[in-house]
Amino acid sequence: MTEDKKKRSSVGVIGAGIQGVCISLSLVKKGFNVTLIDRDEPGKESASYGNAGHFSPYASVPINRPDILVDVPSMLLSSTGPLALKWNYALKMIPWFVKFIQNCSKKKMMHTAKYMHQILDLALPAYDELFQDIDISGLIESKGIIYFWTNKDLKSRELEINIRKELGVEQQLLKPHEIHDLEPHIRQIYHGGVLYPYAKHARNPKKILLKLFDAFIKKGGKYEKKNVRSISLNEENKPVIKTDLNFLKFDKAVIACGAFSKKITDQLDEKIPLDTERGYHVHFKGHDLLLSWPVIFLNRGFGITPMEQGLRVVGTVEFGGLDNPASKKRILNLINNAKYLFPELKEHHDEWLGFRPTLPDFLPIIGPSKNSNNLFYSFGHHHLGWTLGAISGKILAGMIAEEKTNLNLAPYNSTRFS
Ligand SMILES: Cc1cc2nc3c(=O)[nH]c(=O)nc-3n(C[C@H](O)[C@H](O)[C@H](O)COP(=O)(O)OP(=O)(O)OC[C@H]3O[C@@H](n4cnc5c(N)ncnc54)[C@H](O)[C@@H]3O)c2cc1C
Prior knowledge:
By secondary structure, the chain is an alpha/beta fold. It is built from 13 helices and 21 strands. It has helices at residues 3-8, 18-29, 47-50, 68-77, 90-102, 106-120, 123-131, 154-167, 176-182, 205-218, 261-265, 328-341, 389-400, and strands at residues 10-14, 33-38, 54-55, 83-85, 140-141, 145-149, 172-174, 192-196, 200-202, 222-225, 228-233, 239-243, 247-249, 252-255, 275-284, 295-297, 302-307, 310-319, 349-358, 365-368, 375-379. Helix 2 packs parallel to helix 10 (205-218) and helix 7 crosses helix 13 (389-400). It is globular and about 65 Å long. The two termini are 29 Å apart. The model has no long low-confidence stretch (mean pLDDT 94). Flavin-adenine dinucleotide is lined by residues 14-20, 37-40, 46-48, 51-54, 56, 227-228, 256-260, 279, 281, 314, 354, 356-357, 379, 381-387.
């Protein structure tokens, strides 16, 4: 696409989470005329605000894997475990679960791992490019992330460790005394662990998102606070976005509404099986000296990240859709798990529920709609949407600018569900 054509091309991006903001910034940098639309202030309560803040380029081994099916029933029944189901949502979830099970073979697992690795490997350099003109000092730490577990979990750990080895992911296995040397305040319940040394973590995901948003505005991007109801294609096959207040016409449009994207794609004759894995966080303030690395206790499926707001305790995969209220029991579970590791923790603050956007094969959708080359999608980044913000933005902006790429982008196409 010529520079002149880019300047003349208008793009509407719906959703100001990390996906929409990174896409919008990448597009204005290329010279497009971009309007970012969100029903809320950027980063208000979205997944991109409340996540664990991990930049996890190592995390290519998906949850859909042969051994998970054996573990699910006991995880669902465990009161300390990571998995929960809102029973009033169970029937609605069945089609998603069926597709998930179909994606748990070794072959499908390796397909997902390979194509997650393809983009995860580029995730940090893509952020470095976006951060070139932005002052993010004090907001990101580059010390790595520690996982630990008790013996019970060792077998499934071995599978992940071996696949990561095959993919060339750098990892350092940790013995119990090494975990203790790094994090002496954690109760010594662990039997093993691993450090991913080149992972990073955000000290405040919302502040980073707002810095990226400000850069977008400074480069001439526009922002409209509006709720989008639907998108249609006009006689020229161009997108028309219907908001609560008006119609907005663009040459191209992008849907990047995280877990809410399906509400819009369902109206476009798409059958994209997007659902949500709900997750929670709480903060414990004033305990900065207890922890310096972000840690994940795998047996209980939760993590603690040291952030500006205090220790952010994050976890739970709850299947329950977008409309069910937050579950007090899940929040209590997080609090108890945190106190199990750090008995000195007392009062918690800021109970938050967020929505991971998840497709049953655990690959995101990044690419054009099946209906039009003027309509694009970027959602379904599940547990890794924060890590994958910049690279998804780079890929999608490249697609809209009709640039050539050496990447194999077919695995992320929405047509895999048609
Ligand atoms: C508990 C938890 C912990 C996580 N931890 C990590 C982590 O450590 N590392 C990592 O990489 N990922 C993590 N994730 C995943 C990551 O947060 C998400 O994948 C990512 O934030 C999704 O970004 P998004 O931009 O697609 O969606 P969102 O952040 O959900 O943003 C979507 C935006 O779309 C807007 N919107 C929706 N519908 C409409 C509409 N109709 N009209 C207008 N606007 C609309 C919303 O207001 C929102 O601003 C975590 C997620 C959770 C829930």
